[in-house]
Amino acid sequence: MTMLQNIYLIIMLLNIFLAITVIFLERRNASSTWAWLMVLFFIPVLGFIMYLVLGQKVRKRQLNKLLGDNQRILEDTLEKQRVDLLEHRLLPADSELSEYQDMIYMNLITSYALYTSNNSIEIFTEGNQKFDALIADIDAAQHHIHLVYYIVRDDALGRKLVGALTKKAAQGVEVRFLYDHIGSSNLPRRFFGELREAGGMEAAFFPSRIPYLNLKINYRNHRKLAIIDGKAGYIGGFNIGDEYLGLNKHFGEWRDTHLKVTGGAVLQMQAQFLMDWNLASSGRINLSEAYFPVVPFVGGKIGMQLVASGPDTEYQEIKNAYIKMIYSAKETIRLQTPYFVPDESLMTALRIAALSGVKVCIMLPSKPDHFFVYWATHSYLGELLKSGVHVYLYEKGFLHAKTLVVDGKIASVGTANLDIRSFKLNFEMNAFIYDYETATRLINIFEEDVLHSRTLTQEDYDQRPLFNRFKESISRLLSPIL
């Protein structure tokens, strides 16, 4: 045999070995298995490399060991709430929303999501407003500032924010900044130099131990949280960069949704940050009452749960909560997401809702920022249009909001896109809100966005070019691993 034949034989044997691993040992779901088999057999060498980098599963046993006792911080309170829910002693702030007790219970036992009813919410849909408010809270901080962001840019906004943090660190305030190593891959180490010199700390989540090779590249911390003194918390879709202020010419105006929360729900954000930080940093945080201050009742009456999910959890908690909301709908469902790559369970829930007479409205951006994800998204729209779902394509800029509102009663705002990656691979967190007024405000925002959107009809979809259909088909086959 020639040398080329020997190399080819070795590659084929490696592919067969990997195929056996995917099918028999890792026990992936069927769609993910077929997607990886296609990659392995149709692009043997590159497929092998892709599998080594993208196909590795995160080891839950290792994560649980690193998390240690932090995950059990609130166990006593969780058990008390569980019993109260079963015995109908814990009701939403508005008793008319008691029909969602089963959803509150599910989130509680699967995601350690405490229910609090003493919250106030401020909604931001524009970047300047959100970051002005955040920097004002940073300037007023007395004890600690905790931030975790997926993307951090070394640009005007990034430097402004780190400048504010550096000032507070120099004053003796504890400052911790956690960023995702892949999402912020272009961030130079000098970016945090002055913050470190002032006493602040930064950490990268799942960094590359070998240059240009990260075996955990698939498992990213996609959360965007800021906690100030354990009293105010921010959660939503805005990352840190000038494009989130609408300064990127390609995207134009950036349309996102972010919340500022005050009240008991902030402590859930804090607990999640502590777990994320202790997972990523060698400078572990020792638990202290200073991070979990008693939150007085200050007039807030909004019921909330903060639900986290990721490859370290047993269930796809945010996806399950979405499905629970969709199946509970009697009148309307309004959904906004930049990426729509659902699995069959979500597709079935949306189709059943629409076929049951519920008005289902989905809003997506009209312009792409990720080629394969964009075309995979469009491959699913035809099925929904046939079921009677209303599809809007936002045209005023780039839509990055991740919101779901059902019947004008309950809502979700957070970091998770409606795609397989967010539900299975990324570390995410969403706020689930049980409040008429907040749901109504989010509906009004949605309807305002409709004025800047184009309605996608069945006729439009059927007349799309043949080449577009080809791109959709290829992208959809790869959707389980996008």
Word description of this protein:
- The protein is an alpha/beta fold and 482 residues long.
- Helix content is 43%, strand content 20%.
- It is built from 17 helices and 19 strands.
- A 15-stranded mixed β-sheet has the order 4-3-2-5-6-8-1-9-18-16-15-10-12-13-19, sandwiched between helices.
- Helix 13 (371-386) links the parallel strand 12 (359-365) and strand 13.
- Helix 7 runs parallel beside helix 8 (156-170) and helix 11 (317-328) packs parallel to helix 12.
- The protein starts with a helix and ends with a helix.
- Mean pLDDT is 85; it is low at 23-27 and 59-71.
Observed structural traits:
about 475 residues, 19 strands, alpha/beta, globular
Describe the secondary-structure layout.
Layout: H1 3-25, H2 30-42, H3 44-54, H4 60-67, H5 75-86, H6 101-111, E1 116-124, H7 127-140, E2 144-149, H8 156-170, E3 174-180, H9 193-197, E4 201-205, E5 225-228, E6 232-236, E7 253-255, E8 258-262, H10 265-280, E9 302-309, H11 317-328, E10 332-336, E11 340-341, H12 344-355, E12 359-365, H13 371-386, E13 390-394, E14 397-399, E15 403-406, E16 410-414, E17 418-419, H14 420-425, E18 428-434, H15 436-450, E19 453-456, H16 458-462, H17 466-478
Parallel strand pairs: 2-3, 3-4, 7-14, 10-12, 11-17, 12-13
Antiparallel strand pairs: 1-8, 1-9, 2-5, 5-6, 6-8, 9-18, 10-15, 13-19, 15-16, 16-18
Helix pairs in contact: 1-2, 2-3, 5-6, 6-11, 7-8, 11-12, 13-17
